[in-house]
Amino acid sequence: MWAKPENTKYVGGPRDHESVRASVIRDAAANDDKLRLWPVLARDSGRLVGTCGFVEKNVDGTPEVELVYFLDYTFWGLGYATEIGLALLKEAGAARGLRRVIALIDPENLASERVAEKLGMNFERETVRPNGKRMRLFAVRIPAVPPDS
Length: 149
Ligand SMILES: CC(C)(COP(=O)(O)OP(=O)(O)OC[C@H]1O[C@@H](n2cnc3c(N)ncnc32)[C@H](O)[C@@H]1OP(=O)(O)O)[C@@H](O)C(=O)NCCC(=O)NCCS
Fold this sequence. Notes:
The protein is of the alpha+beta class. It has helices spanning about 5-10, 15-30, 80-90, 110-120; strands at about 35-40, 50-60, 60-70, 100-105, 120-130, 135-140. It has a three-stranded antiparallel sheet with strand order 1-2-3, with helices on one face.
């Protein structure tokens, strides 16, 4: 999926086999199970359709946690990214101790922007990434979890 131009147009372009393999191994071996990427499987077929999760990002000197949703293009338009995002944000506070989650979105990636909106994320500002790419920063505050819940 990471090698296909359709899937990666707004997320840095196609990756080569070795770099994808290395990052999958790194994720599988990660001790921190709170901030990482997981596979997305279709419930009916069990097929691998994408990946999702949380990654740490430094944005203009500030540590942030980014929500990631990435699907193979043959599974776009089915509401999967919204379903994934809602599920992840629901347990971001209690299970992962997060108080704020962001999304960095290519200005041309209108589908991703729409997903962020559907997840209740708000546009905050534009930022320029270290590679020179301009991105739109969306964010949502995660409510504090009461201690006895
Ligand atoms: C962005 C992405 C995750 C969306 O996944 P998805 O499962 O198709 O998303 P959903 O079906 O939940 O919602 C998509 C929404 O965007 C809308 N949309 C799709 N293409 C659009 C476009 N070109 N312009 C405006 N809105 C668009 C859909 O109509 C839908 O909104 P609606 O429910 O109000 O009709 C998917 O395209 C993807 O994986 N892209 C490659 C990786 C990527 O870019 N990830 C995000 C990085 S920030």
